[in-house]
Specification:
Blueprint (H helix, E strand, L loop, with lengths): L4 E2 L10 E4 L2 H12 L2 H8 L3 H9 L4 E2 H11 L3 H6 L1 E5 L7 E2 L5 E2 L2 H11 L2 E3 L5 E5 L2 H14 L2 E2 L1 E5 L5 E5 L1 H11 L19 H15 E3 L5 E3 L4 H16 L1
Antiparallel strand pairs: 1-6, 2-3, 2-4, 4-5, 5-9, 7-8, 8-11, 10-11, 12-13
Helix pairs in contact: 1-2, 2-3, 6-7, 6-9, 9-10
């Protein structure tokens, strides 16, 4: 199966805002194409003041408007993405700077999925939270986000019981859920079936990440993985069986 690449055009329209290396240059090109700032605003169904402030204040531009312009002008997404320096979700959500675009399907991406199902969670505000007493695993989670998405803003807290809690940009969870239709609820979460058709490195990365969170080694040197989510355990069992037999 071919590895997927998720371009900006594949991102959810209504949740993402984009910042260009030079917003003024991007907008001026389109003002020239449409004939005036007012005509560009009319095409996008926004007020001219909105376009003016995008330029003057160097504001993030809603992806839905960028898609509309790209479709009208038949612009290439590789060219558009090469000028993007950051993107974020709605309102005051944490920013992803120096983004990796397109996002390429990778073992690291599936390791992130495993961590969010394991010791991680996505709260009611859709913010991904990863909790662990092992700082190395917290650092590894950071590296996975960097590898897949880019420089994602995040916050790390240390709890009363010595556990570390990393809160990442909700955009990370929004995108992963959108790409794979994942529910990150501890009991109802499921691993995407797609992994069965991807190279074995994807399964290895996912199993390793889940075992880091939910596993231990007993006195007989057996690796034991615990979870309240039986379907996930059965799925991992199937992946292990394929890896051993293959």
């Amino acid at each position: 199966m071919e590895i997927k690449k998720f371009h900006l055009k594949d991102f959810p329209d209504d949740r993402i805002r984009v910042l260009f290396k030079d917003n003024k240059k991007f907008l001026d090109k389109n003002i020239n194409y449409f004939g005036s700032l007012k005509k560009l605003a009319q095409f996008l169904s926004v007020s001219p003041q909105v376009v003016h402030f995008w330029k003057k204040l160097n504001l993030f531009i809603p992806l839905t408007h960028i898609k509309k312009i790209a479709n009208e002008r038949n612009l290439g997404w590789d060219e558009i993405e090469s000028d993007v320096v950051a993107y974020k979700g709605l309102n005051s959500s944490l920013v992803i700077k120096n983004p990796k675009l397109p996002i390429i399907e990778s073992p690291e991406l599936f390791a992130l999925i495993a961590h969010l199902i394991g010791d991680g969670s996505v709260n009611k505000n859709n913010i991904p939270i990863y909790t662990n007493s092992n700082r190395e695993l917290i650092d590894n989670f950071q590296k996975l986000i960097l590898s897949v998405f880019g420089d994602a803003e995040e916050k790390i807290y240390k709890g009363k019981h010595g556990c570390f809690e990393l809160r990442a940009s909700r955009t990370v969870a929004d995108l992963v859920k959108f790409f794979y239709n994942i529910d990150f609820n501890a009991r109802s979460a499921r691993i995407p079936d797609r992994i069965k058709d991807l190279p074995k490195e994807f399964s290895v990365a996912l199993i390793r990440a889940f075992a880091d969170d939910e596993g231990n080694v007993d006195l007989n040197h057996r690796v034991i993985i615990y979870s309240t989510n039986r379907p996930v355990l059965l799925f991992i069992k199937d992946l292990l069986r394929v890896l051993i037999s293959g």
